[in-house]
Write a structure and sequence with these properties.
Blueprint lengths: L1 H30 L7 H23 L5 H25 L6 H14 L11 H4 L4 H14 L3 H26 L5 H9 L2 H4 L7 H19 L8 H14 L3 H15 L21 H26 L13 H9 L10 H4 L1 H4 L4 H15 L3 H16 L6 H6 L11 H8 L2 H24 L6 H17 L11 H11 L2 H7 L3
Length: 499
């Protein structure tokens, strides 16, 4: 098992390094001229931000033994993050379009007792993965009288909760809590921009990353392995809001089985019977995690089915997965959303069997030219992971030309200085790359750090296959932040300890 772990670790480091290197090169050498920033300026800003992160880590490390001061500073950082989010939300009156607008409109109807969107061929029947998010929005409608601003305030609260969870997770990935993580989360643009958008990822992120925090504590034997039952329930809830739960599940299972220290049996002491290794309890509890995830999903779905709200469970997507994969390999649209593939289901009269057959035909044709497929995958990867705001600025400001706040000075500044957003993101990527390079040669990477790498690679694989949009990668950004924060000041904390 040790040989397998060593081989897997080396391969994962190499793969992750080149994935992050590709992002770094794209941001600084390919995309930077498009954002009015020469290569040298982009690199200089990247190094500048990295030095700021290191300085914050060093400064906070000085207060590690003065916990009252330390946590007071953490509170100030969180408060500053709150002010930035409130300022953005108040300054930009985002128009909810596409699925965001349709979900909010549907939620208003549900709040009034109209469940027609769940009926056959209705919006939430066709796209059942949006059902629970829409139900959540309907609750906001009922409580606040359809206040969109109230939902944005909820997003802000969830964003700050995610920031605190990332702060705790980064501590599990390194040798102590990393104040750098909450500093980054407080001021990083996507975690500000997305509060204005009715994206299900805002709700799902804190749920998923609470599950990640519990898992890492189980892995490090800080809490009992039976907490994996709670992990399973949380992953189910997160998946009901954002259908990426399987990526987290696969990452947890792979990480636990490969990096846990266990053997099938303990060595027998003289005169005593053989015993199962206690280290096996964690891997065995993975079964309970899967059961908890399934039961939670089943129960919540059938509560609404028996209540007459849902017509089918949310996992019954009617072949939508193959439709998303087919759209993901549309060469003309660069694997992004396109009208041709979007209309496929409607063109066959919402006959899911016919739609699946047609999608498979198109997909087979699109995969026939291997060179074009490789080019498409390359373009999808850099578009998906090369935007430092993950599309947050676009979705926050799209169609604002009819809005009187479109001339907001802040928006004008961002339009001409977006390269600062890119450089901030680039600095996070560089921090991880330096950690991986050092870890490869000096074997300094902690077992739990590999979990973040596995999770990131899982998201890369997912978005290589399905329809791609930059905003889809937002759910991975908390883990990217945790990895970056855990990479900064690691050598110093190794010798000095952490808070």
């Amino acid at each position: 098992m040790t040989k397998i772990k060593d081989l897997f670790s080396k391969a994962l480091i190499i793969l992750s390094f080149f994935l992050f290197l590709s992002i770094f090169v794209y941001i600084n050498y390919i995309a930077s001229p498009n954002f009015k920033a020469p290569v040298l300026k982009s690199l200089a800003l990247t190094l500048g931000f990295l030095l700021i992160f290191i300085a914050v880590d060093y400064f906070m490390d000085k207060f590690k033994n003065k916990k009252a001061v330390y946590y007071a500073i953490i509170g100030i950082i969180i408060f500053a993050g709150l002010l930035l989010r409130l300022y953005w939300t108040n300054s930009v009156s985002t128009i909810q379009i596409s699925d965001f607008g349709r979900m909010w409109e549907s939620a208003g109807e549900i709040a009034e007792g109209n469940f027609s969107r769940f009926q056959k061929n209705g919006y939430l029947y066709t796209y059942p993965h949006l059902a629970f998010t829409t139900l959540f929005y309907s609750l906001i409608h009922m409580i606040t009288g359809s206040s969109l601003m109230a939902m944005k305030f909820v997003n802000i609260g969830l964003s700050l909760l995610t920031a605190f969870l990332v702060y705790l997770i980064s501590g599990e990935l390194s040798n102590g809590k990393k104040a750098t993580a909450i500093f980054i989360m407080a001021i990083n643009s996507p975690f500000i921009f997305f509060n204005n958008i009715l994206d299900s990822q805002n709700i799902a992120a804190p749920v998923f990353y609470f599950a990640v925090l519990l898992y890492l504590k189980v892995f490090k034997k800080k809490i009992h392995p039976l907490y994996l039952v709670a992990v399973g329930a949380l992953l189910s809830l997160g998946n009901l809001f954002r259908s990426v739960g399987p990526i987290f599940v696969i990452a947890i299972i792979m990480h636990m089985l490969i990096f846990s220290s266990y053997s099938l049996i303990q060595k027998r002491k003289k005169g005593k019977p053989l015993k199962l290794d206690k280290g096996l309890l964690g891997p065995l509890c993975l079964v309970l995690m899967l059961v908890a995830m399934y039961v939670t999903t089943f129960v919540l779905n059938y509560i609404f089915i028996w209540a007459g709200v849902f017509q089918k469970p949310t996992w019954d997507t009617g072949g939508n997965l193959i439709l998303y994969i087919n759209a993901g390999f549309n060469h003309e649209s660069n694997g992004m959303w396109n009208q041709e593939d979007y209309d496929l289901l409607r063109d066959v009269g919402f006959d899911y069997d016919k739609a699946e057959i047609e999608a498979r035909k198109r997909l087979e044709q699109r995969l026939s030219d291997k060179d074009k497929v490789l080019t498409l995958i390359s373009n999808k990867y850099r578009t998906q992971w090369g935007a430092g705001d993950f599309g947050g600025l676009y979705w926050s400001t799209v169609e604002l030309e009819s809005n009187p706040k479109a001339t907001n000075d802040m928006l004008v500044w961002l339009n001409y200085h977006f390269y600062y957003v890119q450089a901030f993101y680039s600095a996070l990527i560089l921090a991880i790359m330096l950690k991986l390079a050092r870890g490869y040669y000096k074997n300094e990477i902690k077992p739990e750090f590999y979990f973040g790498l596995i999770l990131f690679v899982g998201f890369v694989c997912l978005h290589t296959l399905i329809e791609m949009q930059p905003r889809y990668g937002y759910i991975a950004m908390p883990m990217i932040t945790a990895l970056a924060a855990a990479s900064i000041g690691e050598r110093r904390s190794t010798y000095e300890g952490g808070v």
